[in-house]
Amino acid sequence: MTKTYTITVAYAGGERRRGPVTMGQANMIRCMLRDEPEHINIHAVWPVPEGTRTESAIDALRALVVRHEALRTTFPHAPGEAPREQVVASEGEFTVTVLDHDEVPPDAAGYADAVARRDRVGRFHLDRDFGLRVSLVAVAGAPVFVALAASHAVTDVSALSVLEEDWLDLLAGRTLPAVTAFTPLDLAAEEATPGGLRKAEASLRHWERIIRTGPQAMFAEPGAVGTEVEAEQLTLRSLRGARALALVAERTGGLPSTVLLTAWCALVAHRAGQSSCVAAVPTSNRFLPRLARSVNTVSQDALLRLDMGVPSFDALLGKAWGAALNAYRHSQFDAVRLWDMIDAVTHERGSRFARDVVFNDVSTLPAAAGSTGGSDGPELDVVRGPVQVLPTRILTFVHETAPLLRLDLWVDPALFPPDEAEGFLTGLVRLLEAAATEDVPLAALTGVTGVRPVERGADWVRVDGSWVSPREVAEVLGGALGGVPVQVTPDEDGLTAYLACGGSPLTPADAHAALMDALPGRPGVLAPRRYVIVRDAPAEADRDRTSAWLRQRILREGAGRDRRM
User: Fold this and answer.
1) 3-state DSSP call for residue 417?
2) What letter does residue 462 receive in the DSSP assignment?
């Protein structure tokens, strides 16, 4: 039997303050207003130390709210507008839902996780809602877990980790040191300085270089469709992996976190058949000391591009730290300006940037979620967990690297059948084990890891740094224009599209705009660099021959980028 009741908790303390939102807050607010709440809200589960009373757990939560301004923050705004400022309250209240069970639920930790996930589903009202939804899972009056759902405008995964550590210290009776990390308003002020503005401009230039020249999608291949995937969580727990990671770091002198990132990028690029790995690395923008323990949402992607054009793992590792640091330094930006830039560049390039790959290493955060804290664990085990809808093709969260390698993986099931998804994780461990004793040639990754590159077929070609199917380009372009005949051919400058307009007033700009509107969810489609419009298509038997199209009278031709739609 379960008894459910709600406790209203009043708090008072701290200073009432008001000011602009940070770039990270603006970024996450933009996502919160656009995305479904269960996709953008975050959650955490904190085990409650044995012997803790409910009143003590709640008192510690109240102390957190007083200590950290982000938890007392709301975002006033007019209807239909995105918030541009934040208000920190000096007093207020929040609620705690207590779920008191007569007996311990089966898989109590899984139950608490389900409670937190359930609370993610509701949308947070930015102008008035407390930024945490708090549930206490109790047994016979004694709390055993805190289940939290959090507004991503207020906290991120790193911030929740800091809060957990502070909460445990409070329960243990320890005195917390003064807060020295940036508050959200501190960070907003720093971002508005000349130096902060220069940093944001440099970030835009860094992103633009990658968006202009990198692959438009890491997983441009048969089966990659849509902009969201429903993916099952896979959890790797491996003592073997942790031992091997430590040995690679010792042999090469690299940091374990960099070694793991290098191995992961190598395997992703190998599986995707790409010459570089482009990945979002969200946690890494906390590399500055004043941000490391900031309770705030600092969630802005560090965009990493690691070139695979080297012969071996050690050579790749030698490049990885510089590439990662370059990404970390350029992870502070105005999100609206960033996406305006991405839209402009991709219109010109004729692509849609796909945030296919995300690598989030939270293993160095305080109170890393679910840390084992000991050497017990399986040599290598992969466990399946709940399904989640994600706007990515592959997402990895690293929770521990020692004494156990523990990470969560979600992959697009259309690209990774169950055996291949598990094989990717075991392949990562095998790569670390091979690199523990000697340098590994990148050309040997299939044999070393068991992970095979995708087979795209003869129709696929590499154009402008991206894998493209000219046949699919022709089908999508023809469909976007109401079924007109289209032939697309690759050449040294890119793709050329030949279109038969049948007398309609079709222009290259019309064709390009129609194709761009049809691009989302089609990573194998890249817009032609040139559109050649004729009145009538060649005879059916000759339509796949470029020379036959060129014998038709050309009505118009051009790049189609002369106007924005």
Assistant:
1) coil
2) E
Tokens of 197: 């503005």
Long-range pairs for 456-463 at CB < 8 Å and ≥24 separation?
Answer: 456/221, 456/222, 456/273, 457/222, 460/221, 460/524, 461/490, 463/490, 463/494, 463/495, 463/526
Q: List C-alpha distances in Å: 401 to 135, 275, 372, 374, 491.
A: 30, 27, 11, 12, 47
Sheet holding 42-47, edge to edge: 2-12, 91-101, 132-139, 142-150, 42-47
- Global model pTM greater than 0.85: yes
pLDDT digits (tens, 9 = 90+) for 40-95: 999 999 999 999 999 999 999 999 999 999 999 999 999 888 899 999 999 999 99
Element (H or E) spanning 230, and its range?
strand 229-238
Query: How far is Cα 333 from Cα 290, in angstroms, rounded to an integer?
Result: 17
The residue with tokens 């691009």 is 519
Q: Is the dihedral of CA 6, 153, 122, 102 positive or negative?
A: negative
d(C-alpha 317, C-alpha 480), whole Å: 44
Name the β-bridge partners of 135.
97, 147
Please give the Cα distance from 64 to 166 (Å, whole number): 7
The Cα diameter of the chain in Å comes to 86
Quick count: other Cβ atoms within 10 Å of Cβ 276?
A: 21
DSSP string, 240-294: HHHHHHHHHHHHH---HHHHHHHHHHHHHHHHHT-SEEEEE-GGGGG-SHHHHT-
Which H or E run contains 61?
Answer: helix 54-67
Q: Are 505 and 471 in contact (CB under 8 A)?
A: no
Tokens 């051919």 identify what position? Answer: 489
Of 138, 164, 133, 163, nearest in space to 148 by CA: 133
Mind listing the pLDDT tens digit for each residue in 306-322?
999 999 999 999 999 99
Q: Which two tokens stand for residue 73?
A: 């923050």
**How many beta carbons lie within 10 A of that of residue 140, not counting itself?**
10
Residue 390 host element (H or E): strand 381-390
**For residue 101, which phi and psi values (nearest 5 degrees)?**
-105, 150
Rounded Cα–Cα distance for residues 464 and 416 (Å):
26
